[in-house]
Design brief:
The protein contains 5 helices and 5 strands. The protein is of the alpha/beta class. Helix content is about 40%, strand content about 20%. Helix 3 links the parallel strand 3 and strand 4. The chain has a domain of about 60 residues: Response regulator (Rossmann fold), CATH 3.40.50.2300.
Length: about 120
C-alpha cells in the first residue's frame, strides 16, 4: 500500500516537525518545504494527496504559493489547507479565493490538525 504524502510548507522547522509527528499516526508521510519556491518544485515532482501551506513565508506569501500550486495540472484537485499564526481579517476569504479548502490558526492541537486532514483526504 502506498503511503499518503502531504506537502507541508512552513519556514519554521519546529512547525514542520509537529505536523510530521501528528500525521504519522494517520500513516501519512510529510514532505516539508521551508519556502514557496521549494514547495512548488516539490509539487511538480510528487503527487500529494493534500497540502498545508503557511501564509508567512520568506520568499512569497502562502496565497501566492497556492495560486502557483493550482497551475500544476496534478495539483488542481488537491485540497489545500492554510495555516497561520497571523490574525488578519480577510485571510480566510483570500484563502478561499485562491482555492484553499480550509483554514487553521496556530497554535493548533495535533488532534485538530488530524481531524482537518482526515476530513479532506
Amino acid at each position: 500500500m502506498m503511503t499518503t504524502q502531504v506537502l507541508v510548507v512552513d519556514d519554521e522547522s519546529v512547525t514542520r516537525r509537529v505536523v510530521t509527528h501528528a500525521l504519522q499516526k494517520l500513516d501519512i508521510e510529510v514532505v516539508g518545504a521551508a519556502d514557496g519556491a521549494s514547495a512548488i518544485d516539490l509539487a511538480r515532482q510528487h503527487h500529494f494527496a493534500l497540502a498545508i501551506v503557511d501564509i508567512n513565508l520568506p520568499d512569497m506569501d502562502g496565497f501566492a504559493v497556492i495560486q502557483q500550486l493550482k497551475t500544476i495540472a496534478h495539483m488542481q484537485a488537491v485540497p489545500i489547507i492554510v495555516f497561520t499564526a497571523r490574525n488578519q481579517p480577510g485571510d480566510k476569504v483570500t484563502a478561499q479565493e485562491v482555492g484553499a479548502v480550509d483554514f487553521l490558526y496556530k497554535p493548533f492541537s495535533t488532534q485538530e490538525l488530524r481531524d482537518l486532514v482526515t476530513r479532506h483526504l
